[in-house]
Amino acid sequence: MNAPTQSLNVSLGARSYPIYVGAKLLGSSVAAVLQQALPNAGEQIVIISNATVAEHYLKTLTDGLQAEGVARANIFHALMPDGESYKSLAIYGEIMDLLVKHRLNRDCTIIALGGGVVGDMAGFVAATWQRGVPFIQIPTTLLAQVDSSVGGKTAVNHPGGKNLIGAFHQPSAVVIDIDTLRSLPERELKAGLAEVIKYGVMADSHFFAWLELNMAKLLERQPDALEHAITRSCEIKADIVAADEHENGIRALLNLGHTFGHAIEAATQYKTWLHGEAVAAGMVMAARLALQLGYIEKNHANRIETLIKNAGLPIRPPKNISKQRWLELMARDKKVKQGKLRFILPTGPGRANIFSNISNEALTRLIDTL
Ligand SMILES: NC(=O)c1ccc[n+]([C@@H]2O[C@H](COP(=O)([O-])OP(=O)(O)OC[C@H]3O[C@@H](n4cnc5c(N)ncnc54)[C@H](O)[C@@H]3O)[C@@H](O)[C@H]2O)c1
Ligand SMILES: [Zn+2]
Predict the structure, then answer these.
(1) 198 marked ligand binding residue
(2) pLDDT in tens, 17-53
(3) d(Cα 105, Cα 168) in Å, to the nearest integer?
(4) How confident is the model at residue 335, as a pLDDT?
(5) Is the keyword rRNA processing assigned to this protein (predicted)?
(6) Per the domain annotation, does 232 fall within a domain?
(7) CB 3.0 to 4.6 Å from 280: which of 118, 162, 194, 316, for a disulfide?
(8) Would residue 3 count as lying in a domain?
(9) Rounded to whole angstroms, how far apart are CA atoms 14 and 24?
(10) Is 160 labelled as part of a ligand binding site?
(11) Measuring from atom 41 of ligand 1, which residue has the nearest CA?
């Protein structure tokens, strides 16, 4: 049994790990990856997933592990209900109860099988069970494949805010099986594309141009196009994480479109807009603000907007947010430093920068043009 060819690596010294991107990886390949990444792991494995994803993929994964003799009879399943509201301390507690009940020990391995909700929960469980055990990410949404499974941010929500309780805990490997995207609802696919577009806008003008040419193929889920887009996105994220693991500097660039996006999510009570949709409209707002302030050319702002539109994503925020409410919502975003709003704005094709000097007047002018 050989591990599949590694697609890329997240370089973090002793905490470095491989990312595999390809088709048909969910079966026995995961067993090989596990043995390679964690040769000294014990025999206990806990697969954390949810009912929606489990129905499609849990059996393939479990059979693949068992066929290769990994964790012979010691694979436990912890299924959480499907939905962001279950990324909670209550569900975290239930999973911990299960680990206690089955007497999971310190050399167990956690596997996250699912989207970002499952990945964030499983990662936080792995970060805290017995002060930290290894875990493998098997992301099954496009958003999780290009974003949340890479970089080691893990968290659960608190009624007072999203992701308030968490830890940095890097996975030992990330296995991205693009076949899992076949069952992903169309709207979730498009929401993931928003983060893919983000990487092109902020870090790679060639990739941006490639996306302009290949958006239709991505929407049709052509495997080669998906594999390229996911690999390039992960490379960009991996490089940034390697340079700034704990977000003290350039990792903040990954928040392009997110200050506006978070405001849209909050204004709509996290109900009607998916995160990626809010980020899409947020990126258009960031591009328009950059244009207004003279940081980018009109042509570039237009290209960003057109690409987002061609991905089937919203390019305008909801109409019913008042100017006052916008300012309040953005002031609440945790990216505020010393009273000044911090924005990530594009500064040219494949480039973005952090600006902490954006005035309320500039924002008001932007909001007036929406
Ligand atoms: N840790 C990080 O760095 C980071 C980064 C970005 C987002 N996040 C977190 O990620 C979460 C959002 O993740 P998401 O967008 O993946 O949402 P999600 O996990 O809720 O998944 C979206 C929906 O798709 C379903 N699904 C998942 N895979 C499927 C598949 N292959 N086929 C069919 N259905 C499938 C899920 O059950 C769910 O209903 C948020 O909680 C966010 O805070 C974390
Ligand atoms: Zn995001």
Answers:
(1) no
(2) 999 999 999 988 999 999 999 988 888 999 999 999 9
(3) 21
(4) 57
(5) no
(6) yes
(7) 194
(8) no
(9) 29
(10) no
(11) 117
